[in-house]
Write a structure and sequence with these properties.
The protein has 62 residues and is mostly helical. The protein has one domain (2-60). The chain has helices at residues 2-25, 30-60. α1 (2-25) runs antiparallel to α2. It is elongated. The model has no long low-confidence stretch (mean pLDDT 79).
Length: 62
């Protein structure tokens, strides 16, 4: 469970880096930025779900 958390966070950071680099290079269109923002929101939702699942599992442990 811990590995998925770090993998999701790594993906978020990579997406942010790609967004930053493409914006600096001047080759990002508004559609590109929208896609990245959508992907970031999806990743955030996944992280929230993983946290909720891990908390539910932890609460069931003796």
């Amino acid at each position: 469970m811990e590995n998925k958390k770090y993998c999701s966070l790594f993906t978020v950071y990579c997406s942010l880096l790609c967004l930053l680099l493409s914006t600096i290079a001047g080759c990002a269109t508004t559609q590109d930025v929208d896609k990245v923002q959508y992907n970031l929101n999806e990743l955030r939702n996944e992280v929230v779900k993983i946290r909720q699942q891990s908390q539910a599992i932890e609460s069931q442990l003796p």
